[in-house]
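Practice problem: predict the structure.
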Amino acid sequence: MDDKCDNKSKPVGPTGSFFVRKTLVVGLTGGVATGKTTVAGMFQDLGAIVISADEVVHRMLERGSDVWRQVRLEFGEEVLTPDGNIDRVRLGDLVFRDKGKRTTLEAIVHPPVIEYLQREAECFRESGQGVLILEIPLLIEVGALHLVDKVLVVTAEQESQISRLEKRYGIGREEAILRISSQLPLAEKVRHADWVVSTEGTLESTKKQVERVWYEAQKLLA
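Answer:
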C-alpha cells in the first residue's frame, strides 16, 4: 500500500467501520518476546494483510532520513555503525537502561510511525477488503488504540519471555527482565483485548487459536 493510496473521500472512523466497508483493522500487540511476529505470520498465511510497526521503524531509521538525523543529533556518533547506519542493538541497550533516553527516542520515532500507520489504516478502509493486521508492540502505551477496530494481545509466561530474549540477543536474565519491565504489564494489555492468543504451547496450539480468531473476524465481515 505504502503512499500509493490517495484517499479522496473522508476516511471512515474505526468504530464499526467493518460493518460498512467490509474491512477489519486489528491491532496486534503483546509483550516483548511473546511471539507477536509468529502470530502475525499465521494471520498472513490465512489471508490477512500485515504491517509491522517495527519494520516501519527500521525503514525510518535508514541512513540519511529525517529520523536518522534526529537520532544522530540526540544520541551522537556512538549509536552509529562504521558505515554510518544506526546500530539498533547499541541504541536499544542505551534506551532500555535509561528511561530518559527511551523517552527521547520515543518522541522522535513514534509520531511519524503512528502517522504512517494511520494513513495505511485509512487507505485500507477506503480501498481494501478483508483484514489488516497492524503489529504494534506499544499499541496501548502510545495511545494508538484509535487506529484499530479490534485488539489482539499475544501472551506468554514471563519465564518464556526471558528464555526467548536470552537466546535471541545473547543477554543475561537481568537484562531480559529489564526489557520486559520497560513495557506495560501483559495483564494490563489483556484488559484492552478483544482476543488473546497464548504462545505457551506448541506452534499447532497457537495456530488453532489464530484460526479461531480468524473465524470470528470473518463472521464480523460477513
